[in-house]
Design goal:
By secondary structure, the chain is mainly alpha-helical. 59% of the residues lie in helices and 6% in strands. Helix 1 runs antiparallel to helix 2, helix 5 packs antiparallel against helix 6 and helix 5 crosses helix 9.
Amino acid sequence: MAGSILLTLALVFSIFSMLMYFFTFRGANNTINLARIAYHAMSMLVIVASAYLLYLILTHQYQFKYVFSYSNSDLPLGFLMSTFWAGQEGSFMLWLLLTAIIGIFLQSYTSKRGDLEPRVMSVFALATTFLLTMVSPLLKNPFEYLWVHPIFLDFKNVAPSFLNLPILQNFLFSDPSSGQNFVKMNSELYAVLTNAGISINDFVIHGKGLNPLLQNFWMQIHPPILFIGFAMATVPFAFAIAALMKDDYKD
């Protein structure tokens, strides 16, 4: 819930910053400072949300679907940290984080060069708005709880001491072809466990873990370098659109 709130507030500030910068470009007064404050507020919220997601991964908070799907307690620290960007939701978060930080430096750079800041930063804030929309609770939210959408958990991911409880019998399934047994995790089971005083993090004790194909040194450095490139590509794009906005191509 906290992570979703942080990202939702960041989206609001990003939209507000984008609009205030655009209104400044169109000649409005007393909007430039509001745009700057809103952008910095958005960036801080994104940084805090990213740090929170990393904290959830490092402390094995398997009640979050993203943490359960890509990490487990057997991974060494380097691989465990790299699960931050192992899935689509985390990759978007990394892209957003790097873009927001680059925007802080871009804002400082353009503020010293005439009317460049309102044009460039309105476009740049549009980019952060797009990325924040992608990780919003409506789309690829990395802070979605495990029980929001039904998911089948292998017995090995669940604490064995709970499997014989009568309240769980309606949620146990088996696959005759593979011989595997599963627990159907959904909102109904969450309510049953909560009423019994059992927390999801006590019930789910092991995540799926990182794909074995990704458990190598390059997984730890390749995606961050790649997404730094993606984030920095937004800068020349913003300058190009800024030139189109003013119909000025000399500089």
